Amino acid sequence: MSHAIVTEGLVKRFGTTKAVDGVDLQVPTGRILGLLGPNGAGKTTMVRILATLLRPDAGRAWVGGFDVESQAHQVRQLIALTGQYASVDGKLTGRENLILVGRLLGLSRIASRRRAEELLETFALGDAAGRAAQTYSGGMKRRLDLAASLVAHPRILFLDEPTTGLDPRARKDLWQLIRQRAHGGTTVLLTTQYMEEADHLAEEIVVMDSGRIIASGTPDQLKARVATRSLLVRAVKASDVARIQRVLGEVSEDTPEVRKLEVTVGCPDSSMLRSLMRRLDEAKIEVDELILRTATLDDVFLALTGRPLESTRTEEPPTEATIQ
Amino acid sequence: MTPPNSRVDAELQSHVGVRAGVEQTFTLAWRSLLQIRHNPWELGDFSIQPILFLLLFLYVFGGAIAGSPVEYLHFMLPGVIVMNMIFVTVYVGHGLNTDLTQGVFDRLRSLPIARWAPLTGRIVADIVKQAWCILLLLTVGLLLGFRIGTSLVGLLIMVCLVLTMALAVSWIMVLVGVMARDPEHVQLFGFTTLFPVTFVSNVFVPAETMPDWLRPVVAANPVSHLSQAARGLMVSGPVLEPALWSLLWSLAITAVFAPLSVWALSRRLEGRSRTGPG
Ligand SMILES: Nc1ncnc2c1ncn2[C@@H]1O[C@H](COP(=O)(O)OP(=O)(O)OP(=O)(O)O)[C@@H](O)[C@H]1O
Ligand SMILES: [Mg+2]
């Protein structure tokens, strides 16, 4: 099997920080790989090295078979990058931004205009095409940024946290666009802080922390290592906690954890919800809240490293089903 | 070491041809100029501001300094052209810094284009903007009664001399653009340093009217040399000496600041000085 991206012992230091600390990575051609990790894990640094924007301090990397250092120009002809921060020219219109990229890639005036119109259509930017990009919303800027990356039909696409800061709807829309591209045979390396995103998009996930790879596998393999969902029940009275704990233990065959008024247990399948409700009802236990939580990166991380994420950013919109 | 996998494509180019690089330069210059279209403020900076300078100084100082505005116009128009040129260079730093902080520079660097195209594109756009300002000031000057006392050739040499200095000073602004945290700081730093440099010169008043201690500074100021050369080339007066001095200054500034800017830029891009977001 051929690999679109290969790295060997990649290292990048910033002062005393080792942003990337000996990473070996292999991404088969045509695959969507999710690089998952908390703030400061080194995701952006990895992407920037692979996109020829940064030189590694040690180790080597090949993209499309070309060395990112000595054959950077060839690499640039194969890749496109959508950075963590939208990199569009705010003073140009959406259309002009796309035409600019087309012209720089050597398309004729007519061809670059035609390609721009196509992409504006695909990315639902037609109405705003004639407005300066600085007036766009965050989601629109992101879409324009992604569109700009696709002008050249890249074979390898780098997406650095493509949906961070977007509202859930805009995020879903963007996911769909990314998946469509990937079906066309493009190799995609996307970074994310969200387990849910990696799960939706990636066929293979690599978990990074402090510049190192700490786990990798398919989403299912990784999820098998953590309970993907958990059920949280909050008691009204402290005196109920022990009883709730017993009921939860019975319906889930797992040991519930207690923290103050909250009892949590892994919930691999939602059918246990019904029996839980029935049991609680029978026992006349009043509950304040019942929450079904999707496993977050924190859970995966905790399971993999045995320590919680020290990350302060927990922007992930929780996908909760709350029953009051 | 051999690549551990087969190449995707053997027919990719290994470098950018000069012709392609020149085309990319013009595309990027076009882009810099296009920005003005959607930003009326910038258009004002390049059009209304120079005219405003000219009119204000002409009618506020004209009577006091030279007796009549038209007489004063012949003294100050060459100087105002030089002064305005200096101020317009700030936009080179401002634009570059915007590209760096907004990530546009990264996008450009990830494209298979000539490494130098983003800088040369800016320079070409800058020359166009500078030439436009000179033309505008000349036109308004002629409408107000300015008469060229030399020849068209003199005028053309003046334009070349001013543009040479513009390129030199632009390198200083590239450095400022690379070092500054955000575009606002470029503007702040640029204008506060350039104001004294342009005013402590013979742009508005002859050096003889200034206090003794200031005269040597005024005499050494490249802005003074260039203004005097421009005066000589457009109206009358000495040409050769001030022109040589201003060329020498242009060369010296370029020799120092071009390598310094390129060095600072590569340092910033390698992330050793961390200024942008992320
Ligand atoms: N230009 C730089 N100068 C100094 N330190 C840097 C630079 N870029 C990154 N770092 C450091 O390197 C480490 C990895 O950063 P990187 O941006 O790659 O992380 P990340 O996984 O992308 O994080 P995030 O989720 O916040 O985007 C961090 O400790 C960061 O502070
Ligand atoms: Mg990042």
Q: What's the gist of this structure?
A:
By secondary structure, chain A is an alpha/beta fold. Chain A has helices at residues 43-50, 72-78, 94-104, 109-122, 138-149, 168-183, 195-201, 219-224, 241-252, 272-282, 297-305, and strands at residues 3-14, 17-28, 32-36, 58-63, 66-67, 79-82, 156-160, 187-192, 204-209, 212-217, 229-235, 257-259, 262-266, 287-294, 320-323.
| Low-confidence region ranges of chain B | 1-8, 273-278
Query: What is the terminal separation of chain B in angstroms?
Result: 33 Å
SSE string of chain A: EEEHEEHEHHHEHEHEEHEHEEHEHE
Helix-and-strand structural type of chain B:
mainly alpha
Structural class of chain A: alpha/beta
Give helix and strand order of chain B, one letter per element, not per position.
Answer: HHHHHHHHHHH
Order of neighbouring strands in the sheet with most strands of chain A: 6-7-8-3-9-10
Shape of chain A: globular
pLDDT < 50 stretches of chain A:
311-324
Mean pLDDT of chain A comes to 86
Question: How many domain regions of chain B?
Answer: 1
Q: Please tell me the overall pLDDT of chain B.
A: 88
Characterize the overall form of chain B: elongated
Question: What do you see in this structure?
Answer:
The complex is a heterodimer of chains A (324) and B (278). By secondary structure, chain A is of the alpha/beta class. Chain A has helices at residues 43-50, 72-78, 94-104, 109-122, 138-149, 168-183, 195-201, 219-224, 241-252, 272-282, 297-305, and strands spanning 3-14, 17-28, 32-36, 58-63, 66-67, 79-82, 156-160, 187-192, 204-209, 212-217, 229-235, 257-259, 262-266, 287-294, 320-323. Chain A has eleven helices and 15 strands. In chain A, the strands form three sheets. Chain A has a six-stranded mixed sheet, sandwiched between helices. The model of chain A is unreliable at 311-324 (pLDDT under 50). Chain B has one domain. At the A-B interface, strand 1, strand 5, helix 2, strand 6 and helix 3 of A face helix 1, helix 4 and helix 5 of B. Adenosine-5'-triphosphate sits between chains A (14, 17, 19, 37, 39-45, 84, 193) and B (271, 274, 278). Adenosine-5'-triphosphate (ATP) sits between chains A (14, 17, 19, 37, 39-45, 84, 193) and B (271, 274, 278).
